[in-house]
Structure formats: C-alpha cells, structure tokens
Amino acid sequence: LSPAAPFRIVNIGNSDKVRLLDFVEAIEESLGRRAIRNYMPMQLGDVPATWADAGLLHRLTGYRPQTDVREGIARFVAWYRDYSGK
Fold this sequence. Notes:
By secondary structure, the protein is mostly helical. It has helices at 20-31, 55-61, 69-84.
C-alpha cells in the first residue's frame, strides 16, 4: 500500500473459469425453473471468457476460496429465499 492509494481492490472468487451457460444452468437448478433464453451473437464489449483472479487475495491473506460456483449459487438462492420470505 502507498500513501497515494491506502487501499487495495481484491477479487474474491475461486479463479476457475465458468461458462455463462453453466452459470445459468446452476441458477435454474437452484430455482427449480428454466430461464427464458434468447441467444444472440457476441455483442460489442462481450468477452469470450472471464473469471476472478483471486491470486492477490491469497498473497495478501493466505485465503483460498473453496466454494465452487454451483454450491455458491445454491447457497445464495437459499439465503435469498429465506431473507426475502419467498
């Protein structure tokens, strides 16, 4: 850290690439319903792959996230349903 920027922005993720369709399918599975899908060609600004590089998180804290995306989505949906009463 430096006096000019006394903070760090840190990605928190498990550093695994996840296909968008796998992400959507995990949400569908957790919600118990299918998404309405409208497939389109790549749009300006779209990227073929993206993921959170959690290397800085590990270097700063020694922590390595252990929860995979499917489990994380399932936990989030369960929490949200409980929180929102739905």
